[in-house]
Amino acid sequence: xxxxxxxxxxxxxxxDLLLERxxxxxxxxxxxxxxxxxxxxxDDMSDRGVVLAVIRAGHLHTWAVIDGTxxxxxxxRVWPVHGTTDETLVDALHACAAATDRREPLPSPWxxxxxxxxxxxxxxxxxxxxxxxxxxxxAGNPYRVRRNGLADLDVDVAxxxxxxxxxxxxxxxxxxxxxKSALGWFVDVRYDQEGVWRRVxxxxxxxxxxxxxxxxxxxxxxxxxxxxxxxxxxLHSLDAAxxxxxxxxxxxxxxxxxxxxxxxxxxxxxxxxAAAQLAERGFGDIYVGDGExxxxxxxxxxxxxxxxxxxxxxxxxxxxxxxxxxxxxxxxITTSGLSKPAAAxxxxxRGYVFxxxxxxxxxxPLNRRARETxxxx
Length: 377
Hints:
Layout: H1 4-21, E1 29-31, E2 37-42, E3 45-57, E4 60-67, E5 75-80, H2 86-102, H3 119-129, E6 133-138, E7 143-147, E8 153-157, E9 164-170, E10 173-180, E11 184-191, E12 197-200, H4 202-207, H5 224-234, E13 252-253, E14 259-260, H6 267-281, E15 287-288, E16 295-296, E17 300-305, H7 313-325, E18 329-334, H8 340-348, E19 352-356, E20 363-365, H9 368-372
Parallel strand pairs: 17-18, 18-19
Antiparallel strand pairs: 1-2, 2-3, 3-4, 4-5, 6-9, 7-8, 9-10, 10-11, 11-12, 13-14, 15-16, 19-20
Helix pairs in contact: 1-2, 3-5, 7-8
């Protein structure tokens, strides 16, 4: 963090930039004496206003634009301290102050805590017009405020594998619509009575099929209006994919009847667990094999590799070559790790690599495409 003088100069520079870009605030914009706060005083709110400040929320320091100077009760919008431009900060302050001054809602994209319009903010506008309640958008700004009562303010930070997304509320479920760089559009739901995220096959609905073989819908194959119509009018009538639960059998007992953790699942249980998780993630074409092979699939060659050494690029190239010769793509499940060059090759080859835990059967993604298939946290 900067020292006191640096912060003072920072906020003076922000005031100058605000007046350069939005001169109408004139004398109503000031840096509060003794505080690192840039405040716009509104005509009918002389003791309050809209402020720009750095606040501590949970474990993070963040930029915050607060409609009302009370951070715990005001309408607070946050941005990262590092990487947020000064132009974004003063434009956000201006947008919030102008909306409050006119007693009007914040315009898009500022109402979604975003500085620039994007496909996700446009989709949020389309859903709002269809009477779907959009609660959050994460496109250019990964930060959002979470409140735990009046006295506790925290910030949730979206992870890179989550892509751009919005969260909405419709009927008796939460909805997340995501746009990911490699795999495209995803729709996931969380029913009130369950509390777990489940995937809905947007691609199958678009194509008029029962299932599609691969997670995601390529970005250039669907219009935003189609996604909005799907969420607003179709989602409530469709079944989501089954979700996988870890093996939770009781532990074995040792000679003195003390719990002893299981050393691992049986091979068949591991295969069943892997197939269930792939189906949960949206692989609609991978099933447990019939004896001749561990798995069966028309679209993918699913290889299982045991071993303790990290898999190399040459191994991935060989396995991918076998899959390509069969006119299929590679899904690799392994008990070992994966080198960074091998992970990059898997992404380039449009493959998926997962590490399996032998004690639980849980799949952990090892390359970007595999990470993008994960369900929301």
